[in-house]
């Protein structure tokens, strides 16, 4: 039987893999240096957050979920095909940034939930959730800024440009 905390962590570990692969693709394949630089800056932070999440999962005794990791991999591959990483600054990049922003927001609320749970679960008390929340908020703000800037061009009517 799996406790809710284990399930919750596994869900987020799968999401972290999607974000990492999305950022690797953006860093390695996008023609626009703005998006390559964004991905290059965010990738080590997202990887560090993934490592922290794995550390928390190990601390509570949650073994890796191969099914959820494979599911995350498949979602990322589907997203890459749908969203593309052909190098153009267009609607597909806008959607990629939106997917990334949603994932980072999910991580932000994960850290907040774990911080709240740490009051009753001693396994979580050693982790600095306030720092993790702050870092996730900064990541979200960066991605959201790029997403909104891109929205101005990809969502506006051609007649108004």
Structural features, described:
The chain has 161 residues and is an all-alpha fold. 77% of the residues lie in helices and 0% in strands. The chain is built from five helices and no strands. It has helices spanning 4-29, 33-59, 66-83, 91-117, 129-154. The radius of gyration is 17 Å and the shape is elongated. It starts with a helix and ends in a 7-residue tail after the last helix.
- Unreliable segments of 5+ consecutive residues: none
Continuous helix count: 5
| Oligomerization category of the chains in this entry | single chain
Number of strand elements = 0
Tell me the helix content.
over 70%
Using the CA coordinates, give the radius of gyration: 17 Å
**Coarse shape:** elongated
Strand percentage: under 5%
Task: Report the major sheet.
Answer: none
What is the ordering of alpha helices and beta strands?
HHHHH
Distance between the termini: 57 Å
Structural class: mainly alpha
| Global mean pLDDT | 84
Task: Summarize this structure briefly.
The protein has 161 residues and is mainly α. It has helices spanning 4-29, 33-59, 66-83, 91-117, 129-154.
Task: Identify the notable features of this structure and list them briefly.
single chain; 161 residues; mainly alpha; 77% helix
Helices, strands, pairings?
Layout: H1 4-29, H2 33-59, H3 66-83, H4 91-117, H5 129-154
Helix pairs in contact: 1-2, 1-3, 1-4, 2-5, 3-4, 4-5
